Amino acid sequence: MKLDIFQVDAFAGKVFEGNPAAVVPLKAWLADDVMHKIAIENNLSETAFFIPATPEEDFDYHIRWFTPAIEVELCGHATLATAHVLFNVLQPKATSLRFMSQSGILTVHKMADKIVLDFPSRKPLPASAPTGAVEAIGMASGAIPFETFRGERDYMFVYESAEDILNLKPDFSALKKAGLYGFICTASGGDIEGGYDCISRFFIPSYGVDEDPVTGSAHCQIAPYWASQLGRNNLFSRQASARGGDLWLTLDGDRVKIAGNSVLVIEGTLTI
After folding, report:
1. Out of 17, 46, 160, 193, which one is annotated catalytic?
2. Catalytic: 56?
3. Which of 6, 139, 178, 214 has the smallest number of Cβ neighbours within 10 A?
4. 198-204 and 183-188 as β-strands: parallel, antiparallel, unpaired?
5. Spatial contact of 150 and 156, defined as CB atoms under 8 Å apart
6. Overall pTM > 0.90
7. Which CATH number is 91's domain given?
């Protein structure tokens, strides 16, 4: 069997930045274990698979995402990558698309040179950190968060400064033992260049990804927190991984609009 496959750098203004995702268009779902093996073969933080909706369904496509370890219920950068492939290669006349996912309907649309994701807001609630997590993330740098929150899936640690975020050197083996969670680390972006409102990094070793380069779904928690702190709903965010990426955020009630650039890097054929 031969399948089309694409690789897109999402939340990137040029190649080799942002978060690379693989995109595999399908006519019908493959077996789950086959999609998982394809994700392992790609060895990226996510591989997106999508199939067309039926004429009776009130959306355009079904979408699923696999890491090398598990299937996830929400993924921003691989949705952005999928939309890039559709808007620029497979369906170039389209200006908006609706995907059915495990997290409900996700709408994407073109906006000048960006693609905008319409995702659920996940306001984080105050929480206690899992045993060992704070130490595993910050022990090497000495950074300690002053607030801890938890959303539906991920914990979020808030630090005093952007420098704290940049200097984090997690012990991923120890962090993996802290539990099956993702860990968002964030701070105000006021003390770094670029005019950022907030900065973050995201660690999720238990899902097979030590540090995710740029994470749209994490900003479903980041956006409501910083909108509340700063008193406005439009934010400019930087995820400060080694590759790095910029996200334009708008909190809109119980939704977060996440805008970003993207670049097609690889187009080819997958043989299985």
Report:
1. 46
2. no
3. 139
4. antiparallel
5. yes
6. yes
7. 3.10.310.10
